[in-house]
Design brief:
The protein is of the alpha/beta class. Helices cover 38% and strands 19% of the residues. Helix 5 (131-146) crosses helix 6 (158-169). The two termini are 31 Å apart.
Length: 316
């Protein structure tokens, strides 16, 4: 690893990286999709932290256009939720599901007291774009139609992309989300400049990896001008929900968060961007072992909580 990362990344985070790579190797994108899913699921089980005692969950299906979209709903005992957090998981649109982010969603529920609804959207390559977007949009429309509670959208990595895509699409909806929280999102930034170059060989996610995931999701079609695929491709950033973006410094995607924040702010919206020092892509799984990740997860939960209450987080 370069001297730069030796200086930026602390020992706790290195230990997390090494544990992750013991399950999910840096050349995972050279494996078959089935192999990637197998090692990813094994890794997620190894990091699974269980549920807080006060939280329980149940599985349901959302009906949409003749298909069933699995969702998992989390509730906190003896709490009347003030809002709903609709959560879209990460995994490059290729891996992940309800179990991969199960404990993360349970902990968001415990911290906020909100009802959390996680969405098991269809994955590529079996279901290329716009399948994942369509499932997340359908889940939003279902939640909006069946509850009067305010809705906060939240997601990490690929899920952050889907959060922004849904937010852009539902402007003018009678139940527009009150806020969106994007965690180290990939939003379609220019891959020949900025953090895509500076951190092209970052541990946990490389620029080569981001190109692979975009290619698989696109099924070799050019969606680069489609905001549902790359939200930064949109030409209109007005009337978006209050926005919190939290990126990792040592991540090729970090500038996507910065540029998205700038676009929302320039269009007159409320947006803040935190670029977490010394953290790497996928650090949500390190929230119990890495001090920096624990603090960042607390900021994420605080942002969800305040946005759901109609309050602006300001500087996290």
């Amino acid at each position: 690893m370069t001297t730069e990362y030796a200086a930026l990344i602390d020992q706790e985070t290195w230990a997390f990286i090494e544990k992750t790579l013991s399950f999910y190797p840096p050349d995972a994108v050279d494996h078959t999709v089935a192999q990637q899913r197998d090692v990813y699921n094994t890794m997620c089980k190894a990091f699974f932290a269980g549920y807080p005692e006060s939280v329980s969950s149940s599985d349901q299906f959302v009906q949409a256009d003749g298909r069933q979209i699995p969702v998992r709903t989390y509730e906190k005992e003896a709490t009347s939720p003030e809002a709903i957090c609709l959560y879209f998981h990460g995994g490059g649109f290729v891996v992940g599901g309800l179990d991969s982010h199960d404990d993360v969603c349970a902990e968001i529920c415990e911290y906020t007291g909100f009802r959390v609804v996680a969405v098991d959207y269809r994955l590529a390559p079996e279901h290329p774009h716009p399948a994942s977007f369509e499932d997340c949009l359908a889940a939003f429309e279902h939640v909006a139609a069946t509850s009067s509670l305010p809705i906060v959208l939240c997601g990490d990595s690929a899920g952050g992309n889907l959060v922004a895509a849904v937010s852009h699409n539902v402007r003018g909806h009678s139940r527009t989300p009150v806020g969106q929280v994007l965690i180290y999102p990939g939003l379609g930034g220019v891959q020949s400049q900025g953090s895509y170059i500076t951190h092209r060989h970052a541990p946990m996610l490389s620029t080569r990896d981001t190109l692979y995931y975009a290619k698989v999701r696109s099924a070799a079609r050019d969606w680069s001008n489609d905001p549902r695929f790359f939200p930064l491709a949109d030409t209109d950033f007005t009337n978006l929900p209050d926005t919190v973006i939290i990126s990792a410094e040592c991540d090729p995607l970090s500038d996507d968060g910065r540029h998205y924040c700038d676009r929302v702010s320039a269009a007159g919206g409320k947006a803040i961007w935190n670029n977490e020092p010394g953290l790497v892509h996928g650090y949500l799984r390190a929230r119990h072992s890495v001090t920096r990740a624990r603090s960042s997860f607390r900021r994420i939960c605080t942002a969800v909580h305040l946005l759901g209450q109609g309050r602006w987080p300001g500087q996290l």
